[in-house]
Amino acid sequence: MGCGGPDDNGDDVTFNAAALLLLIGGLALIGWLAGRARSALLAGRAGTRLHSRPQYHGWYVALWLFAPAAIFLAVWSSMSPALITNAVLASPEAQSLPAFGFERGAMLSDARAVAQGKQAAVRIAEAAPLVKPYADATHRFAWIGIAAMLALALAGGLYAFTRIKPDFRARTRVERIVMALLLIASLVAILTTFGIVLSLAGLLVPIPFMALDLLTGLVQAYIFAVLAMVFISSTVAEATEHPETEKD
Q1: DSSP state of 19
Q2: Do residues 154 and 72 touch, judged by C-beta distance below 8 A?
Q3: How far apart are CA 149 and CA 15, in angstroms?
Q4: Is 2 helix (H, G, I), strand (E, B) or coil?
Q5: DSSP conformation letters of 227-247
Q6: How far is 79 from 84, CA to CA, in rounded Å?
Q7: Fewest CB within 10 angstroms: 50, 86, 157, 174, which?
Q8: Are residues 156 and 232 in the same domain?
């Protein structure tokens, strides 16, 4: 969350992804400390030994705080510019925009730069009426994104915090979450690489570069397959060792 911008009232808010990532990282640290302390306290009260060490309970809470909010942050950061532009185009001030795509885009970019504080004044006079709609839409969608992100973080942290018990298998859950995140990251990398290769297939690209991209995709596919096998084998092993239903 970053403060400051073109307005003079000082209450404008922009969706600063880097600052918000630090914010949810701080919340995850607080969740780690809280989960670790709660597991140790419950074990002391019950007089029983914890199934997992306190730090794993802390990591379980921290991951549930961080992961949903971080995923939403990535999705919202890519979606919000289009939502803001659509809101501006729906405003009365945008009804006089020219139909020609290049000139229309230049005016929108000029107004957006002023609204986001990247430049002091518009360079195209016709873009001046669009500055306030852009600023209003930016602040509105920033508040929506921040509120939704914090709600997801707190909901995830509260869910994980209430599940902490002396017999809760926190280490197993943490390992599964981390493995799932690695699988998702590998899958995204594979799809991105093959998408780049397919986009270049119709162009006059040297064959060695295309072969290198293909080799990179194959290596990532191999890593993805290994991670998938490890994830499946660990899940099957856990079910075999503990066939009874967990009461956690």
Answers
A1: H
A2: no
A3: 11
A4: strand
A5: HHHHHHHHHHHHHHH--SPP-
A6: 9
A7: 86
A8: no
Query: Do the beta carbons of residue 1 and residue 16 sit within 8 Å?
Result: yes
Residues 104 and 222 in one domain: no
Picking from 141, 166, 191, the residue at the C-terminal end of a domain is: 166
148 shares its domain with 206: no
Q: Cβ of 54: how many Cβ atoms within 10 Å?
A: 19
Domain hosting 222: range is 169-248
What's the number of domains the chain is made of? Answer: 2
Per-residue pLDDT of the chain (248 residues; tens, 9 = 90+): 443 344 444 445 566 888 888 999 999 999 999 988 888 887 777 566 777 788 888 888 998 999 899 889 988 988 888 888 888 888 888 887 877 778 888 888 888 888 877 888 888 888 888 888 888 888 899 999 999 999 999 999 999 988 888 778 888 888 888 877 777 777 777 777 666 666 665 554 555 555 655 666 666 666 666 666 666 665 555 555 544 434 44
Same domain, 241 and 192: yes
Is residue 150 a contact partner of residue 31, using CB atoms and an 8 Å limit? no
Report how far residue 80's alpha carbon sits from residue 157's, in angstroms, rounded to the nearest whole number.
25
Q: Are residues 117 and 15 in the same domain?
A: yes
Structure tokens at 140: 């509105």
The neighbour count for residue 98, using CB atoms within 10 Å, is 11
Q: Which amino acid is at 34?
A: A
Q: Which residues contact 93 (CB under 8 A, 6 or more apart)?
A: 129, 130, 132, 133
Q: Among 62, 88, 245, which Cα is nearest to 160's?
A: 62
